[in-house]
C-alpha cells in the first residue's frame, strides 16, 4: 500500500462518493475501469457501481425502466421509479460502503434524473428538486465528473458498440435534439455547481481522458484530505 493509501486506511474516515455523468456513449464505463485501477494502485480501497441498479432491488427496476414500459405511465412516475431504485441502492450498497471508509465510484446518479427526466421540460423543476432531496438525504457526491462529447458522436459510439443485433434502449431511441438538450443540461449542472463538478472532454484518446480524471480526483479529493490529516497531526 502506498503512503497515501496507508494514511487514508489508518484514519478510517468516511469514504467519498464520486459520480460519473454524461449523455449516451461518452465513455463512462471505460473510464470507470481506468479510475478503479488507478485508485487501487494508489492503495485506496474502491468499488464501482451503477444506476439505475447497483443493488438487487434496484436492478429489478432497471429492467422495467430501460425496457420503456414505464414511459407509458408518464414522466413523473418514471422519475419516481428512478428515485425508488436510487433509495434502495443508497441504503443497501452506497451508504454501507461509505460508512466503512470505501471510495465509491458510481456510473450515473442523481444528475442523470435532473438531466434526462428534466430535459423534456414536462416536469416542474420544484418536483425534481424535492424528489432529489428526499431521495439523497445526506448522501451527496463529493465530486461529479461530467463526461462531455457532442451528442451525435456519443450516439454513433453506442450504435457501433451495440452492433446490428441489439435494439436501442428507451433513451437511446430518443431523437438527436433530445440528446443535444441533454448535453446542455449536464453542462448547465456543472456550471451551476463548479465546486462539486468538473467537465472532462472525452473526444480524445482514452488514456488522456483517464489521466485527466485521475488528476482531478487527486487535486480535488485526495490531496486536500491528506493536507487536512497532516494539519490535525
Ligand atoms: P445504461 O445502459 O446504463 O446506459 P449508459 O451506458 O448510457 O449509462 O442505461 C441507463 C439509461 O438510463 C441511460 O440512457 C440514462 C437513463 N437514466 C435516466 O434517464 N435517469 C436516471 O436517473 C438514470 C440513473 C439513468
Tally of distinct domains = 1
Portion in helices: 55-70%
Radius of gyration over all CA atoms, rounded: 18 Å
Sheet bearing the most strands, described? Answer: 5 strands, parallel
> What is the helix/strand order?
HEHEHHEHHEHHEH
> How far apart, in Å, are the first and last alpha carbons?
21 Å
- Could you say which overall geometry the principal axes of the C-alpha atoms support? globular
In the CATH hierarchy, what is the superfamily? P-loop containing nucleotide triphosphate hydrolases
What fraction of the residues are assigned to beta strands by DSSP? 5-15%
Which CATH class? Alpha Beta
Verbal overview:
This protein has nine helices and five strands. With 233 residues, it is of the alpha/beta class. The chain has one domain (12-232): Rossmann fold, CATH 3.40.50. A five-stranded parallel beta sheet has the order 2-3-1-4-5, sandwiched between helices. Helix 1 packs across helix 9, helix 4 runs parallel beside helix 6 and helix 5 packs across helix 8 (176-192).
Structural key phrases:
single chain, 233 residues, alpha/beta, Rossmann fold, five-stranded parallel sheet, 5 strands, binds thymidine-5'-diphosphate
Short description:
This protein has 233 residues and is of the alpha/beta class. The chain has helices at residues 3-11, 28-41, 56-67, 75-99, 110-119, 125-136, 151-162, 176-192, 206-232, and strands spanning 17-21, 46-50, 103-107, 143-148, 197-201. Helices cover 59% and strands 11% of the residues.
Amino acid at each position: 500500500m502506498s503512503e497515501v493509501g496507508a494514511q487514508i486506511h489508518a484514519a478510517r474516515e468516511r469514504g467519498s462518493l464520486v459520480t460519473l455523468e454524461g449523455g449516451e456513449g461518452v465513455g463512462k464505463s471505460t473510464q470507470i475501469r481506468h479510475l478503479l485501477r488507478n485508485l487501487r494502485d494508489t492503495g485506496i480501497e474502491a468499488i464501482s457501481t451503477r444506476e439505475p441498479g447497483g443493488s438487487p432491488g434496484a436492478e429489478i427496476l432497471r429492467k422495467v425502466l430501460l425496457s420503456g414500459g414505464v414511459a407509458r405511465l408518464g414522466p413523473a412516475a418514471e422519475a419516481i421509479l428512478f428515485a425508488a431504485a436510487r433509495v434502495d441502492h443508497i441504503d443497501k450498497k452506497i451508504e454501507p460502503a461509505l460508512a466503512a471508509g470505501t471510495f465509491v465510484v458510481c456510473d450515473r446518479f442523481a444528475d442523470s434524473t435532473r438531466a434526462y427526466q428534466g430535459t423534456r421540460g414536462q416536469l416542474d423543476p420544484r418536483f425534481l428538486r424535492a424528489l432529489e432531496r428526499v431521495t439523497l438525504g445526506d448522501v451527496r457526491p463529493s465530486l461529479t465528473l461530467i463526461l462531455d462529447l457532442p451528442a451525435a458522436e456519443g450516439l454513433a459510439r453506442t450504435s457501433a458498440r451495440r452492433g446490428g443485433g441489439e435494439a436501442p434502449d428507451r433513451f437511446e431511441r430518443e431523437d438527436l435534439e433530445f440528446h443535444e438538450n441533454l448535453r446542455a443540461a449536464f453542462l448547465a449542472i456543472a456550471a451551476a455547481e463548479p465546486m462539486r463538478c468538473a467537465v472532462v472532454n472525452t473526444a480524445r484518446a482514452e488514456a488522456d481522458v483517464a489521466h485527466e480524471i485521475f488528476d482531478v480526483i487527486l487535486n480535488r479529493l485526495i490531496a486536500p484530505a491528506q493536507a487536512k490529516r497532516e494539519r490535525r497531526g
